[in-house]
Specification:
Blueprint lengths: L2 H6 L4 E7 L6 H13 L3 E9 L1 H34 L5 H6 L13 H12 L2 H4 L8 H7 L2 H5 L5 E8 L5 E5 L5 H7 L9 E3 L2 E5 L9 H6 L4 E5 L13 H32 L12 E5 L2 H5 L11 H22 L11 H5 L1
Parallel strand pairs: 1-2, 1-7, 2-3, 7-8
Antiparallel strand pairs: 3-4, 3-6, 5-6
Helix pairs in contact: 2-3, 2-13
Length: 346
């Protein structure tokens, strides 16, 4: 995490971690980070993230600065516990109003239908005139933003979308504030645009979910591990209204990653074919941790499900998935890519 730590832990394999956003599904990433941090053979050089991925990255890093491995793990637990405790509509209450509802999706619950209908009729400027945000107090309480901004040795990259210019803004460690994190997770149907330095920002997932280039160009490690929580593949095209909306959500929040990785794959191919000079282009290995089959069973409505049972399920899934990935691919870290960029993103 820091220059001092890098010297102290010489011999570990350095990796960068790119964390995708996806609301409550970010609890999967919580589990992945906990497993990676628990492996004494690894050293995390830099982290990039969007929305829930950005919050995971910042809370995790701040916890590490304060209490190293145990601090990072405890900080993530506390963050997700408080997210669940602060849910506007507890899942238990929602299920009580829909006793036939099965699983973690909220499509058939009264609470979700009310939220869906209200946000189609009214903007957050009408519904939330005081601009209240349920995560602001949690983040202010848990993260020492001022302390993080002083750590020039820590590589953190948080993505947000500039509403006015349609350009990506990546906040680096020295720029991090609670507003930067809230901007990265600002869904425009739920929250007012976050104002930073006279500009308005929405969720970073529209333009980078998560940002990859800063990890490649600004970090020592040339190993990038992508934690992807939005499914890329579906066995068939959706035909029902809710299924169509769910697939639109998945495609929208994967499109920026596909676009960026497609560009990287294209350049890599041209360099390999000798069509583009490779001078100064350091080879980068890419890796992917995902649980696509399990995550495909979850609709986009479950991204609003902050029930502790659901978050705990995703956490355990992340732990298990990362454990399997390490068992299968640890020896390849630093040697080769375990992600086939061409078949995955082209």
């Amino acid at each position: 995490m820091t220059t001092t730590d890098a010297k102290h832990h010489k011999g570990r394999k350095r990796i960068n971690v790119a964390l995708q956003g996806g609301g409550a599904h970010g609890a999967f990433t919580w589990g992945v980070l906990e497993r990676l941090m628990s492996d004494s053979r690894l050293f995390i050089d830099g982290l990039s993230g969007t929305s829930a991925g950005a919050m995971n990255a910042v809370v995790f890093t701040d916890g590490f600065v304060r209490g190293r491995q145990k601090g990072a793990i405890a900080a993530l637990y506390e963050f997700w516990r408080r997210v669940s405790d602060g849910a506007l509509v507890p899942m238990a209450m929602t299920k009580a109003l829909a006793p036939l509802h099965v699983g973690w999706n909220m499509d058939d619950t009264l609470g979700f239908h009310v939220l869906d209908a209200v946000t189609r009729l009214f903007s957050p400027y009408q519904l939330n005139p005081l601009d209240l945000h349920p995560l602001r107090d949690i983040l202010v309480d848990l993260v020492d933003f001022e302390g993080l901004r002083q750590r020039s040795d820590i590589k953190l990259f948080v993505a947000a979308t500039n509403v006015r210019t349609c350009k990506l803004r990546v906040f680096r460690t020295h720029e991090l504030t609670v507003d930067a994190l809230l901007a990265s997770a600002c869904l425009p149907i739920l929250f007012r645009a976050v104002e930073i330095e006279g500009e308005s920002y929405w969720d970073g997932g529209y333009l980078a979910n998560p940002p990859i280039s800063p990890l490649v160009h600004e970090c020592i490690s040339k190993e990038v591990v992508i934690v992807q929580i939005n499914p890329m593949n579906r066995p068939e095209a959706p035909t029902m209204a809710r299924e169509i909306l769910n697939r639109i959500n998945e495609i929208s929040f994967n499109s920026s990653l596909v676009r960026e990785m497609n560009g990287i794959a294209t350049v890599s191919r041209l360099v390999g074919q000798g069509k583009v000079g490779g001078a100064g282009l350091a080879p980068v290995n890419f890796h992917l941790i995902q649980a696509e089959d399990a995550m495909s069973e979850l609709g986009s409505s479950s991204k609003f499900n902050a029930d502790w049972g659901f978050l705990s399920y995703l956490h355990e899934l992340g732990l298990a998935t990362a454990d399997i990935w390490l068992a299968e691919h640890f020896d390849e870290i630093g040697e080769r890519s375990t992600l086939d960029m061409f078949s995955t993103y082209e």
